[in-house]
Amino acid sequence: MGPEPAGMVVVALGGNAILQREQKGTADEQFENIRVTSWHLAQMVAAGWRLVVTHGNGPQVGNILLQNEEAKEIVPPMPLDVCGAQSQGQIGYMFIQVLRNELQARGIAHEPVGVVTQVVVNPDDEAFRHPTKPIGPFYTEPQARRLVQTKGYQVVDTGPKGWRRVVPSPDPVHIVEIDALRALVQAGHIVVSCGGGGIPVAKGAGGQLYGVEAVIDKDLATERLATELGADVMMILTDVQQVLLDYGKPTSRPVSRLSVPEGRQLMREEQFPAGSMGPKVEACLRFVENGGRRAIIANLAQAGAALRGSAGTEFTAQSREG
User: Is 0.90 surpassed by the pTM of this model?
Assistant: First the structure.
């Protein structure tokens, strides 16, 4: 017999769980990083948690886009939604294989399942009028201008490295495959889904889905998934120990617990930059506001301790005194 069920936890893994910054991105490197990550995930399963995993895909989809660009005269390049699906399949395969091996070595019978996941966005989202998410390779200015003319890309000057394409990053509205994902979790499977924020799709006439050129924030998509599944806990595992207030200032300090009112006030004070901690904190606040019990931001190496409440930054509906 296994341990008593502890509840459902949805875990979002940052890019460092799959590919370290100084690495080239070979398959062997990514498999090895996922082996380390899977050890921590298996600890949660061994403790009785029903586990759902999401993950980033930045380096991987960037490489796919670069391959598209280099081979465009030989093989037709794929649109961004298809590239996102390719990266989901690639990373999902790695996770379900390595995690299965880790669980099998521990005598745990739960079967990991990877699901290529679509996420509905609103085609009228303000993000489509103001694309901000840089993706893909760097270009010279003449190359970038040519892509604007020939492909309709929107580009920005990122500084010394060159120009990059920018795409919309709309808010996630609904997980298309949510009923299937819920059934898999209820059947005892460990589910890997919503990779890279999910494949962004919109609804056309008659509710027909179609892919859109966009990138959904992985942490915000994780909140949608966790909320729609009715998870007890949502964890965002990254490369920081805790959320920091006054980041980069002499007054910088970690915080171990935040209530929703406290977190919302800090968001209004612009304590959390949009390009780094902002979406993570926003996702945690949304999860608790939408009925989740606990949301946590923590370091991957301290995942177990954070789940037990002794590491990371925890978000709850009210303060400890409230």
Answer: yes
